[in-house]
Specification:
Length: 244
């Protein structure tokens, strides 16, 4: 039996199901049964297993973050947002780099879906700021944006807020400056989570789960520290213990 504070901590964790097919993802989901974390379906799994995998998670009562990082012309993002809202996902994301009009179009797509089906729940729409794999030097020299990563993240977060979105994806290192710029109710969803000693992989801007929580993050996205662990359930339980 999980204690109340453990249930609360688990509810902050979004497990990244980055797998090539439904069977592999399903094995991970089954190994975590009974732990009330979010399940995140990203492009690898969605492109392979599609809406039916998402529907299966929803039928079993999971909260689902559909991470497709939409970034296209406003009309296309409106249509994409309309479709994913009809899937009943709890959270989905677009790129803030698409601009205010594109993010507003995402919300229009949501509204159109909700007005056509009163049984649907309003999803939390969030914007990706600067990917957590982006370092300061890549931002400046390769992408060619001047200024600090933090300035870019806050600029994107303010655009997302202005467009009416409910929060952003960023590194835990930027949670405090985002909350200072956009208010405490503006949600932060933070990948780049690495328990002490875990491999960095392709992430750049990382923090441990407990450090991220101390920054005030609302949700933390965790993939390989769980999916590549010999015992993913034990790895998630250790993270939950670190958070309580
Ligand atoms: O939108 C995301 O979820 C996301 C944004 C970002 O800036 N960085 C980032 O890593 N992610 C996702 O978060 C997950 C992180 O996975 P791990 O690095 O394996 O923990 C992956 O599924 C990424 O697609």
């Amino acid at each position: 039996m999980m204690k109340r504070n453990e249930i609360e901590a688990a509810g902050r964790v979004m497990v990244a199901l980055d797998y090539p097919d439904a069977a592999a993802a399903e094995a991970l989901v089954r190994s975590l049964e009974g732990i009330p974390c979010y399940m995140k379906v990203g492009m690898q799994l969605f492109y392979a297993a599609g809406p039916s995998f998402v529907a299966g998670l929803k039928e079993r009562g999971y909260k689902v973050f559909l991470d497709l990082k939409m970034h296209d012309i406003p009309n296309t993002v409106k249509g994409g947002s309309n479709s994913v809202t009809k899937l009943g996902v709890d959270v989905f994301n677009v790129h803030a780099a698409g601009g205010i009009q594109m993010m507003e179009a995402a919300l229009e797509g949501v509204e159109a879906a909700l007005s056509g089906d009163s049984s649907l729940k309003r999803p939390l729409v969030i914007a990706v700021t600067q990917l957590t794999s982006t370092s300061q030097s890549v931002l400046n020299t390769e992408i060619g944006l001047s200024g600090s990563v933090e300035e870019a993240v806050v600029r994107y977060a303010k655009l997302a807020k202005q467009a009416g979105l409910g929060g952003v994806v960023a590194s835990p290192q930027e949670v405090q400056i985002i909350k200072a710029a956009c208010g405490n109710d503006f949600k932060t969803i933070t990948p780049g989570i690495r328990p002490a000693g875990a491999a960095l992989n392709d992430q750049s801007r990382i923090m441990t789960p407990s450090e991220a929580l101390k920054q005030g993050t609302d949700y933390m996205v965790i993939g390989r520290p769980l999916t590549a662990a010999a015992d993913p359930r034990a790895a998630l339980e250790a993270i939950i213990k670190e958070l309580v």
